[in-house]
Amino acid sequence: MIRSELVQKIADENPRLSQRDVERIVNTIFDQVTEAMAQGHRVELRGFGAFSVKKRDGRIGRNPRTGEAVEVEEKHVPFFKAGKLLRERLNGNEAGE
Q1: Are 57 and 88 contained in the same domain?
Q2: Which spans are transmembrane here (predicted)?
Q3: How far is 82 from 44, CA to CA, in rounded Å?
């Protein structure tokens, strides 16, 4: 599902909200999650999962074409850990037992 499909689904299920309002809501949620992660915070959505940022240290890598050693700088990468309810639903246990 892409962002526009999400907006359309929410708009279809909530006819009292305009498409523009739904789009603004979805964008605000994504912006807030992104901003919190950019500041190094963890974002938890109960029943869905948690987004966090992990630091990868710098290292010496190899260019696969030439085999030459290349310095790879440290970087921060997004990380998602699925919540218990999401894992159960994906594995066919819809009752959450």
Answers
A1: yes
A2: none
A3: 10
